[in-house]
Predict the 3D structure of the following.
Amino acid sequence: MDVRVFKNAEEIGKAAAEIYAELLVKKPNAVLGLATGATPVPTYKNLIKMYEDGSISFKDVVTFNLDEYCGIDKNDKNSYYTFMHENLFSHVDIKEENINFLDGNAADYEAESRRYAEAIKAAGGIDLQLLGVGTNGHIAFNEPADEFTDEAFRVTLTQSTIDSNQKYFGDIPMPRYAMTMGIGSIMRSKKILLIATGEKKADAIKKMISGEVTPRVPCSILNNHADTIIMLDEAAAGLIK
Ligand code: PGA
């Protein structure tokens, strides 16, 4: 793992967007794995700026998002589909047909998992996967568990995740389930970029950096990936030496 520490979230946003831009210049039809949450927002802001100044285009880019809630419409204001449109897709020249999401309301979750795996394979695999990390060490919605997962599946969200994300839903109780890419699907990405900011992430980062690979700390699996960059602000790096 290539661990890089930055002063703050803004600096990570710039550096992470640079990694995406380098790939898009080299490979304009790259397959991008994208993440939601507060952490990637500065990265997306910088990508929009780069698109606006003409240094990158999303015209031939294909995207796969990590996860989607179950039980809310994809056009709901809290869906990850809406989040990605508001924070990136509506501001750049990506084609709607090149945007891929898991369907949180699929009638058959196993068939939906197979569909997503086949779509990723047909696109040639994910070139660069962006990840945030949960305070409990989750990546996508792979919560601490007894075993690492493989392909996408329907997950029961943990209380820690609900406590972190309920704020976006205000008074409406947030969904208890989501469809998420599995650990195997994430690990098959050619390159991975994990970004983490703030003191709340410091414990998960410390456990990941310790090198012990365990499904109780899902992000620790990244120790087994050959091409992973970790970008941390000083607070998230606060417990590592
Ligand atoms: P956050 O979420 O960026 O909103 O902290 C990260 C995650 O849960 O993966």
